Each structure stands twice: as C-alpha cells, then as structure tokens.
Amino acid sequence: MTDPTVTTMMTEFGPWLAFLTPELASRIQFGWAITIHIIFAALSVGLAPFLVYFTVQEVRTGKERYVRLRKFWTKIFAVGFIMGTVTGIPMGFMFGTNFGAFSTVAGELIGGPLSFEAKMAFFLEAVFLGILLFGRDRVSDWFYALSSFMVALGAWLSAFWILVVNSWMQTPRGYEIVMEDGVQIAQLTDPLAAFFNPRFPWMYVHMQNAAIISVTLLIVGIAAYFVWKNRDSDVWKTALRVGVVVLLLTSTFQAIHGDMYGRHVAETQPHKFAAMEAHYETGSADLHVVAIPTEFESITDPRADNLYTISIPHFASFLASGGDPNAEVTGLNDFEYDSPPVAWVFWSFRIMVGLGFWFIALGAWGTYRLWKGGLADDDRLLKALMLSSPLGFVALITGWYVAEIGRQPWIIQDVLKTSDGVSPPVTGTEATLTLLAFVVGYVLLFSVFLYVLKRIIDEEADRHEIGIADDNRPDSPGVPADD
Amino acid sequence: MTSVFSDSAYVLESLPELWFGLVVFALGVYLLLDGFDFGLGILFAEADDSERELMLAAFGPLWKANEVWLVLFGTVLFAGFPAVYANVLGRYYLLVFAILFSLSLRGLGSKLREERDDEQWVRFWDACFVAGSTLSPFLLGVFVASWVLGEPSPLAIAPFVVGLTVVALAVVLGGAFLGVKTRRGLRTRVVQRGQLATGAYILLFVITAAVLYSQYPGLRPVLLSGSTGALVVVTLVFAAANVVAASRERYHASVLSASGLAATLVVFLATLLYPTVDPAAGLTIADAVVSPLALNMTSVFAAIFMPIIVGYFLFLYSVFSGPVTADQRYK
C-alpha cells in the first residue's frame, strides 16, 4: 500500500494492530481457516459415498427409508457444501494474498494441480449438486442417481488434487531450482514424479479414510440419538447397524495404515517424527504411550523429564526402522534448522492416536452388540456414540496439525522456509486485521452451521414423535408427501 | 509440432497468449454468469416476500456453479502466471478479502434466510444477500480496474468508476435473466429496471472512457485506436438491442444482448492490459508465463476439460430453463 491516505491511516492504527508479524499472522490465519474449512471438506468427502448408496437404493427399491435417509443427509450435505465453498474459496486466494513468495517459487508445481482441481472437480460437484438439490422432478430417476455419483466423484477428485499439492510440499519431487529474473524458482521437470511423490499415496489413503471415519461417527451418533428417542425406528436402526460395522473396519484399517505411514514419515521427514515423540537427543527413542503433563510448563514444552509417561523403551526406534530397537533416531537438537513447535505436534499426535483407538473400541463394542443382539437397547453404547459423534473431526484436524505444523520451519520441505514464503507487500497491520476478521467470521459461521444442523436434526426428531411411517409398508406409496 | 512433454518449447508458439486469453475468458464468463446473480440480488431489495421466493428459486440451482468460474479464473491465472497471481493478490490484499467477504454474505444470506421462520432472522439475511450482491460487483470492478491500470492502491478514481459500471451491468444482466425466469408483474418491473440500468451503464461507460483518457496518458493510443472504436460501437448496438428486445418482450434476445455487453466490457479491459499482465510490476506475458513443460501440461488439461465444462453449463441451464414457480425449492 503506497497511497498516502492509506499510509497515514496505517501509521495511526498500525502500531496498535500490528502486534503480529506478517508471517505469524498469515500462518495463524491460514491454519485457522483450514481448521474450519477441513471439517466441511471432510464432510463432503466422507458423506458422498453414503449419499450415492442412499440414492441408488431409493431409485432401485423405491423404499421410503432410503428416501428419508437421502433427504436428511442431502440437506446436511448441502449446508456443508455451501460452508465448504464459502470457506474454501479464500484458501486458494490466500496462496496469493499471504504466501505470495511461496506461490511465485512453487507456482509451476502447485498452480497446475489447483487449476485441475477447479476444472475436474469443482464444476462437477457444483453442477450436479444443483441437480441433486433442485432437480428431483426435472430429470429421470437414474440420472438423479448418477448425479449423486458425480457429486461424490467431484469431492474425491478435489481431495486428490489438493493432496497432490500438499504432499509435494512434504516430499517435493520432479522439479529443479532455476534462477529467473534474479529469483530462484522451482521449475517443473517431471509432472508424474511431482504429482505422485512418495508422500502422496500415504496421505490420500489416510485422509480419505479419516473423512469416512469422521462421517461414520457423525452418522452413528445421530442415528443413536434417533434410536434412543424412538426404539422402533427402522430407518435409523439400519443406519446404526451399518455404521458400527463400517466404523470398526475403517478405524482398524486406519491404525494399521497409520503405523506404516509413521515409518514413512520417519524416513522422509525425520524432524517431524522427532517432534511427534518430543525426542531431543539423538539415539534410540522410546515410545510414550501415555504422557500426562505434571506442570503447566510441560504442556508448552513437552519433554520426557517433565512429563509423567508410560513408555515402551526403544519402541519408537523399533517402529521407525521397522524392527530394530536400537536404531538411531535423530533428535531435535541435531538438525541444522529450527524445530517445529514441538508441543503442538506432540500433543496433536497423541490426541489423534488416542481417539483412533477409542474409535476402534466403539466400533468393536457396537459390532459385538449387533452380533449378540440388543444394539438398539444398550443405552450406554448409544450415549457413547452420541458423545463421540464430533470426535472424528477432532482426530482429523489434529492429524493435519501433525502433518503441517510438523513440517515447520519449512513450507516446502528442504526447499523453502515458511518465513521466506510470505507475501512481500503485506504489512503486519493488514494481516492482523484480516486474521481478526477470519476469527470472528468463522466463529459466527460455524455457530450458524451448528444451529442449522440442530434444526435439521430437530425436524427429523419431530417426524418421529408424530409417527410418520419410516418402515416399508407394502401399502405405503414409494415417494412420500413433501415435508 | 512440438511434443506436449517438451521442456524447451511451447506446443504452440502463441500458447502464452492463448493462456492469457483463457484467463480473460474465465474472468469474463464469471462476471457474466455471476452478474445474473448479482443483479438478481440487487433487484431483490425491492421485491416482496412471494417475489423473493421466486427469485431465489431461480438463483438456487445456479449460483454455486457460477461462482466456480471465479475459482477457475484464480487458478488459471495461478497456473499460467504465478508471479502475477502473487503480486496482484498481495498488492490489493484488503480489497481481495473484502470481495471474498461480500461473496460469502451473498451466498450465506440466500441459504440461511430459509432456515428459520422468524421475521427478524429473515430480514437480516435478506439484507446480507442484497448487500453482498451489491458490494461484490462493485469491488470486483475496482479490483480488475486497479490491476489493469497498474494502480498501486485501489483507492483511485478510475477503479471506483469502473466498480459502479460493473454494478450497473449486473442490474442489466439480472433484469434480463429474471425476464426469462419470472412472469407477469414481477417480470414487467425487473425488465423495466434492466432498461433503466442499461442507460446508466452507457453513461458510466462514457465516464470511464473520459477518466481513462484524462488520467492515463499512456492509454491514449489504445483508447483512440480502431479496436476501441469498434468496441464502443458494439457496446451501443448491444445496449440498444437490449432495450428494444426487452420492450418487445423478447426476453431471450434481451439476455443475449446483455451478455454481449458484459463480453464487450471484459474484452475492452483486456485490450488495456495486453500485452502486459501486471503493469504495476512491469511484467509482460512473456516475462511472467511459466516454463514450457508446465504450460504444455496444464494446456492439455484445459483443452480436454474446457469443452466439458461448457457442456455442463449448457446442460445445467437447459435443465433449469424457463420460468420458475414458487414450489421449486429443495424440500
């Protein structure tokens, strides 16, 4: 900003507002915006396959229960999609507004995939969601089902390209550094090596499965609520039965996959692995299964000697090397660059893994009840499912904190530091101002989302109370009266 | 012909210029399609509740898809000219977030008003919808003009005037769109508003040209060139056609001529920019474009997907063609 009036304005308000550097304000802003956005992104990715299932079943069987499930979850999908669009568009633009130097350096590698995302995924999703929401009577049944598949495909392709970009930032390949107009930039040399870099498959599988787990928990949580209110609800008992089995399978798979993923991280980003275990001194590393802070300082600065821990000696070495308990794990003190914010990585990792095991337990408990009978009558299980319904998203977000905060101080691993990636013209005042707007705006936005979600749930609960048929009576018409 | 996987030459010699054309095309289609929505949102202000329901039934299935063109514009600019993407967005930092904020207001307003029946709640989100629909085209006009004119700050006269011009254009587009989508009293009124806005648009277009001529001596050769003259004639023809079509109840013709106005404006702004892409930083297309391999690769994707995308829109607009009725809301 060089306009005189603006400059005066900034100098008057500047010192008061600019208590954050452009770098720190930009990082917090991006991190906060993605924290909210990823909830909606994961909701789309995870819910899409379920919607396809409900829609296809509705068209195939004409059963009322599928019409009900499709309508209920399409409403939630639609609200989530709008929230996802509203919070997602700023993410793409923030590469330019806040991380301009990064965008200039890595433009050839990440600009392409982002444009593929728009071309392949966003249009597909937006166009066919229009049909899904407004076109039930305007297109044929099978075309309607196809539309839900197209929306799902769009959501999964979108995640594909975004994770191509993100995984490239973790394990960059297929480029060389060249000088252009006095600036070093990464020039694309091999698109396939860049897109399918070593991290990509790990990330895509882990993230997509995490999204499915999160949505499954949401579905079984809400189903548990409806079943708890009305034990005769065939619609929601169906959802509950399918949900607990899916939960057990997907969360068990996630744990096994996560273990192997961790080994890959230890090989490719040793400083992140060290931060996950707060491992400072190079040597054999222990795995801290339980870590409890004993004083306030141990929250912000977790180290084995100021935590109460239950540890498996040498087990982190064992995991990192795939079997050697004495394998040397480089400690944070021995890297040539700064450590990431260890506390964030260490605690986020523990929250993610701890919740992951809880999901396996829940899934096993539910599946056991299903097998033995009485799934719908176990109040304690139903309550546990209800309380756990948002926790998948918590695990997913903390998992991303491990991946992203653990990559610091790099914005592109070993290529560009985050501090060198920030937009040169942006001032601390401007960045702080927009950060405040994002904090306030997204708190309001998310409250509105929760409110709307609650309304949709209440509306469904009311239908239960007044006893609208949710079973498949032979004499009931296939398509219900409008609500 | 050079191989697509060549890292030493562009598949076509003029590929960087074609990519510049794609950036302009994406921006133009965005301003056109979301222009329908912005205009609808502005005209929403004076509609009564039952008319508002109708207007939102016309808006509902289309706006999200329309807004994706903005994302396409951003990512295509990023993919082809990353330095320009970084420079321009960083330079107009607060303005960019103001645009995103007003777009959010518009999107949320339309969706959230129907989530509760209470009067105050509905009025609040209606006001957000109207404010967002009015501010967005204004700020977008300011942004594009600041970029094209190489202004270091958006607080200058010319971007302000262009912002107003884009708002007038949005009302022209919204009036024409609603002419097709509604019936009877509402249609008569919105079409009339569109005709008035066409007059305002021509006036503002002339003012814009005058401001550019007096304040940007460097642009005088372009402004006095034959191509600008042709664009002015085309603008007048489309404006006249729009007014005549609307008064003869030829609503589809009115949409086409209003679209012609939008296209002409975008082409005009692009001629001011070409062959630079970031005048404030002194970057030309050749300076800022990515390396051959990167551009060849993204162009292959564009060549495959752009026709598909255009197909989606022809399909979407045909599924939701014709006048709306109040019951066409998602239930």
Automatic annotation (TrEMBL), chain A:
GO BP terms in the entry: aerobic electron transport chain
Record's bilayer topology term: Multi-pass membrane protein
Transmembrane feature ranges: 30-56, 76-96, 116-135, 142-164, 210-228, 240-257, 344-368, 380-403, 433-453
GO annotations of cellular component type: cytochrome complex; plasma membrane
Main localization of the protein described in the UniProt heading: membrane
Organism domain of life: Archaea
GO terms, molecular function: electron transfer activity; heme binding; metal ion binding; oxidoreductase activity, acting on diphenols and related substances as donors, oxygen as acceptor
Keywords per UniProt: Cell membrane, Electron transport, Heme, Iron, Membrane, Metal-binding, Transmembrane, Transmembrane helix, Transport
Transmembrane keyword on record: yes
Subcellular location: Cell membrane
PANTHER family to which the protein is assigned, alphabetical: CYTOCHROME BD MENAQUINOL OXIDASE SUBUNIT I-RELATED (PTHR30365:SF14), CYTOCHROME D UBIQUINOL OXIDASE (PTHR30365)
Full protein name: Cytochrome bd ubiquinol oxidase subunit I
Biological source species: Natronolimnohabitans innermongolicus JCM 12255
From TrEMBL, chain B:
Transmembrane parts of this sequence: 20-47, 68-86, 92-109, 121-149, 155-178, 199-216, 222-243, 255-274, 294-320
GO biological process, one term: aerobic electron transport chain
Pfam families: Cyt_bd_oxida_II
Membrane topology, as annotated: Multi-pass membrane protein
Location of this chain's protein in the cell: Cell membrane
GO molecular function, one term: oxidoreductase activity, acting on diphenols and related substances as donors, oxygen as acceptor
Main localization of the protein described in the UniProt heading: membrane
InterPro entries attached to this UniProt entry: Cyt-d_oxidase_su2
Highest rank taxon of the organism: Archaea
Keywords: Cell membrane, Membrane, Transmembrane, Transmembrane helix
Gene Ontology annotations for the cellular component aspect, listed alphabetically: cytochrome complex; plasma membrane
PANTHER family registered for this protein in UniProt: CYTOCHROME BD2 SUBUNIT II
Full protein name: Cytochrome d ubiquinol oxidase subunit II
Organism expressing this protein natively: Natronolimnohabitans innermongolicus JCM 12255
Lineage of producing organism: Archaea, Methanobacteriati, Methanobacteriota, Stenosarchaea group, Halobacteria
